[in-house]
Amino acid sequence: MSWLGVALYRVRMRCPRCGATGVDAQGLCLRCGLRIGAPPPVQRNPLLIPGIAFAVVAVLMIAAVIVYAATSGDGSDDTVAAPTAAPVTTAGTPETTVGPSVGPSPSDSTSPGASPSPSGDPCIVGVWLEERHDEDLTTPDGTVVTVHGGGTFQRYSYDGVAFFDYDNGLRLAGTKGSSRYEFLFTGFISYTYRVENGEIIYSNPRAQGTELLYNDNGHVYTRNLSARNLPPRKLNCGNVAMNLTSAGLNIDLKRTSARQ
Questions:
Q1: Measured between alpha carbons, how far apart are the two ends of the chain, in Å?
Q2: Long-range contacts of 16-21 (CB under 8 A, 24+ apart)
Q3: Which range is least confidently modeled, 50-59, 145-154, 164-173?
Q4: Which is nearest to 253 in space by CA: 188, 113, 156?
Q5: Would you list the domain boundaries of the chain?
């Protein structure tokens, strides 16, 4: 019922005794108790039912959004990584590591009946010190002088590399007539070598150092150490001593270390 209908109904329901318009549920006047009739119907809001329906729909939509947000996420969370299978190993089978092959140790060449080195003679392998070095050298003016000295370390490796180390300097001095000459070599020279028919054959010289010459008048020259091509040297090798000879050359050496 509209508000206008309610107002008209209350006018009709006015108590004839006291003039009041209010009645209770039994239709009695609230002031004097005279029965007048049934109370007017309760006025209803016309927007109540649509408002309730809208509120229910809104609640359902909010609930749906909350459930979706809770159960969904970025793609990375939905994907479960598969477990990585552990490597399969065979019990009791040791792992094998492949490495470079190891050649014979230096001590192998010293034992009786040891196989020769690739250079051709296991006796020469090792480090030797020149105790005496006699050699004919030629000066820039063509004078051939027999000089004497020592102190060079000669190293012969198992795989055929010879290394001449002049250490603090090799001094070779000699006289020709009344003139004295002195050669000073510093640095080193390396060669590849092999032993054939009792001789050492040298090749591929490489030098690094200096070579100086002095005479009675003083300093003659200083130049880079020459990578000389050596002629074959006759070899006489023993356990502790070795002798090398060629035309105009004689060197006596002693072993200073185990064979390399």
A1: 123
A2: none
A3: 50-59
A4: 156
A5: 1-46, 108-255
